[in-house]
Write a structure and sequence with these properties.
Elements lengths: L8 H23 L6 H8 L3 H7 L3 H20 L8 H4 L8 H17 L1 H16 L1 H28 L9 H18 L6 H15 L4
Helix pairs in contact: 1-2, 1-4, 4-7, 4-8, 6-10, 7-8, 8-9, 9-10
Length: 213
């Protein structure tokens, strides 16, 4: 008598988690954060509500993990091409010794991410909701933004040590000269978000951060 192979519960769980994360992103893109519900996510994913509550305490937690997962997969996809950076560069802002070139490379990549249709809608939804929901906003900053901003601090401090940035400059404030204009234009849609604009931001900001003669 042939033996019956037991179902792989871990594989089933992985499939369920993937379905839930994908459903959460699809719904927040289609109907917005406020109208996305645990019930809706469960129905879309083909699972019971209790399956979701077994892994996440709230809708915000589901959506945060879904967005972090999406961002991670997007980063992996961007790093799989022939021109992809090395593992070391992918973990931080490149340090080629040319601060302007390094920052332009990173800001151009940020422009591409913000303009990516797959990322844009959920990013806008979570950003907007984080403004009115302090708890969600804090989680968004802690889990996603802070680790990225820390990379700018590291690169700017290296530039200070190399003499390319004034010693009295606070890197945490200086990075906002780079990121702030991008987010302002993207959030308010004042003008197109382009590589040329990113390059100009870097030129203006680094010019102000450079040592005075």
């Amino acid at each position: 008598m042939a033996s019956t192979k037991a179902p792989d519960s871990s594989r089933r769980s992985d499939r369920s988690r993937r379905a839930i994360l994908d459903a959460a992103l699809a719904l927040v893109t289609e109907v917005g954060y406020r109208r996305t519900t645990i019930e809706g996510i469960a129905a879309r994913a083909g699972v019971g509500k209790q399956t979701i509550y077994r892994w996440w305490p709230s809708k915000a937690a589901v959506l945060m993990d879904a967005f972090l997962d999406l961002a991670g997969r997007s980063a992996e996809g961007a790093g799989s091409g022939e021109d992809a950076p090395s593992d070391e560069a992918a973990q931080g802002i490149p340090d080629t010794g040319d601060l302007v070139a390094d920052l332009k490379l990173v800001l151009r990549a940020t422009v591409d991410e913000l303009n990516d249709p797959v990322l844009e809608a959920p990013t806008r939804a979570l950003t907007a909701e984080g403004i009115v929901d302090a708890k969600l906003g804090a989680a968004f900053v802690h889990k996603l933004l802070d680790p990225q901003l820390a990379l700018y601090v590291t690169r700017l401090r290296a530039a200070q040590e190399a003499g390319d940035v004034r010693a009295d400059v606070d890197p945490r404030i200086a990075l906002e000269l780079l990121i702030g204009p991008l987010m302002h234009r993207w959030l308010l849609r004042t003008l197109p978000l382009t590589h040329a604009y990113a390059d100009e931001i870097v030129d203006y900001a680094v010019g102000g951060l450079a040592p005075r003669p």
